[in-house]
Amino acid sequence: MKKTVPIAGLAILWIGAAQSVAGQNVPSLKDVFKADFLIGGALNRNLVTGRDPNAADLAVRHFNTATAENDLKWQRIHPQLSEYNWEPADSFVAFCEQNRMFVIGHCLVWHSQVPRSVFRDDTGNNLTRDALLARMEEHIRTVVGRYKGRIQGWDVVNEALNEDGTLRNSSWLQIIGEGSEDKRYDYIECAFRWAHEADPNAELYYNDYGLETSRAKCDGAVALVKHLKSKGLRIDGVGIQLHGGLTYPSVEGLEYAITSLAATGVKVMITELDIRTQTRGYRGADVSQVSRDSTSDPTAVAAETQKKLADKYAEIFSLLLKHKEDITRVTFWGVYDKTSWIGGSPLLFDRNCQPKEAFFAVVKAAQRQ
Ligand code: XIL
């Protein structure tokens, strides 16, 4: 007896086939920007372990660099004082190597996603300055040392600054800085020194958000870079995270950040690019204030929103191309909308991995230069 496939079934098969080749008939971003800068994305566990093959296809086709979204963070890689959890980071690095991607380690020293116990002794009291420095040294030497020659660039210190450019009052600063002026950069200096000693060939970066929206914060980063350089320490680049929105950053703000950072002699990288589609609510990128729920966005897919998104991406990429001599890398924080930490529709590929208007706007910006 001849088997018949119902029409509806065929339609589903066809849609499935179209989706599985998502982004395959369009230019590859890494080729489009080959002469300008590296292009990458933050990779999550599902992608690296094969549970999200469509995301992996997109990453392999479009990216020549990748950052682990969470796998290298202290909390995940070093959950207890005497316990390292290497499997997630190992598989991330292996995925990047298989696909010949420039591998970024994110991040060594940060106030977030680090167990509180790192800062305390057995009795629950804060550690002394020397004891915390010893823990930080052990962590950096162990993690950087394990991936020596394999992770090519490290976010050594993440988000150490306040909006006004002063140093954030994190446990790192409170304990190691001991509240004293002459010790205030100590933990940052030590982190860069130990990372360099653990892998002398790795590039080392300072990474932060809001550098493109607050001149004072950007000036704080410039001062930090100058300080490290004055101490003879290696710092190769500053990462502007660039968690933007439909109406920010301004061209002036982003250009100020790129030019003033580059003037210190470091390379500039856009390290966590996304454009929030929701227009209400919290605008910044402080992880303690952002959650998918607080940013869920019913208007995200509306044509008007997507047009604004495309325009903002086009504006940003035109500016990045103008400064391509100073910019070495542009990394999206996620691969397609479903993988984004802020919800809504902030990336170039939609929830079905299909390229959006914003994708084509970015490609056009490259063709116009
Ligand atoms: C975010 C991840 O995307 C989330 O999965 C996690 O729950 C919280 O951290 N700045 C950074 C990134 O440097 O590490 C943050 O990543 C986003 C803001």
TrEMBL record:
Instruction: Work out whether the entry's keyword set contains Hydrolase.
Output: yes
Q: Which SMART domains match?
A: Glyco_10
Q: Does the keyword Hydrolase apply?
A: yes
Residue intervals of the GH10 domain: 23-365
Q: What GO biological process term is on the record, naming one?
A: xylan catabolic process
What InterPro entries does the record tag this protein with?
Answer: GH (IPR017853), GH10 (IPR044846), GH10_AS (IPR031158), GH10_dom (IPR001000)
As one GO molecular function, the record gives: hydrolase activity, hydrolyzing O-glycosyl compounds
Entry-linked PROSITE patterns: GH10_1, GH10_2
Q: Keywords for this entry? A: Carbohydrate metabolism, Glycosidase, Hydrolase, Polysaccharide degradation, Xylan degradation
The UniProt entry, under PANTHER family, shows:
ENDO-1,4-BETA-XYLANASE A, GLYCOSYL HYDROLASE
Name the UniProt record assigns to this protein: 1,4-beta-xylanase
